[in-house]
Automatic annotation (TrEMBL):
InterPro entries in alphabetical order: COMT-like, COMT_dimerisation, SAM-dependent_MTases_sf, WH-like_DNA-bd_sf, WH_DNA-bd_sf
Record-given protein name: O-methyltransferase dimerisation domain-containing protein
Superkingdom field: Eukaryota
Domain named O-methyltransferase dimerisation: residues: 23-107
Native organism: Rhododendron griersonianum
GO function terms (MF aspect): methyltransferase activity; protein dimerization activity
Gene3D superfamilies: Vaccinia Virus protein VP39 (3.40.50.150), Winged helix-like DNA-binding domain superfamily/Winged helix DNA-binding domain (1.10.10.10)
Pfam families on file: Dimerisation
Amino acid sequence: MEKEARADPNALLEGQAEIWLCIFRVVETMALKGAVELRIADITSSHARPITLSQIASDIGSPSLDLSSLARIMKLLVHMKVFDADSKSGCEETLYSLNASSKWLLHDNELSLAPFVSMIDPAPISTMNFLSQSVKEGGTAFQKAHSVEFWDFVSLDPEFRKNFCYSMEFSSRISMKAMLTKINRI
């Protein structure tokens, strides 16, 4: 490692940065899930124009909303290019708006990824803690995490089954529309 650092310190720093990004991508995933749960895209869309953080907070309607937490989530989502933000519009507050990515998070849209994002659930996520064990011992990580295979889990948990089926329905719509569009071009 020491010899590599002397040979190309920039490459080593870039490698370290990539590992840090991998470690913290889970934060991005959870911010995305939070945005779907809070219906931030739906709130922004309902105003039909860019809106302030205060307007988003007001429409969330929680009596104990933490505005600073919401601000941090919105900054991250803007950084991730999920929402757009304009702080130079002559307004004291930043204005948030939908973009091509956030439009996929609208709940009432025929082609929505919101149900799929909602599937970011403790059951599948906890499975990831068993990947190395499944490699060492065989079997699936899901079975090691939950003592049943995935499809058995789906049949045993009605709430998970409902969310899973709903997300698969929307995912199928998106795939089918893409295939039909491609076929119609031929």
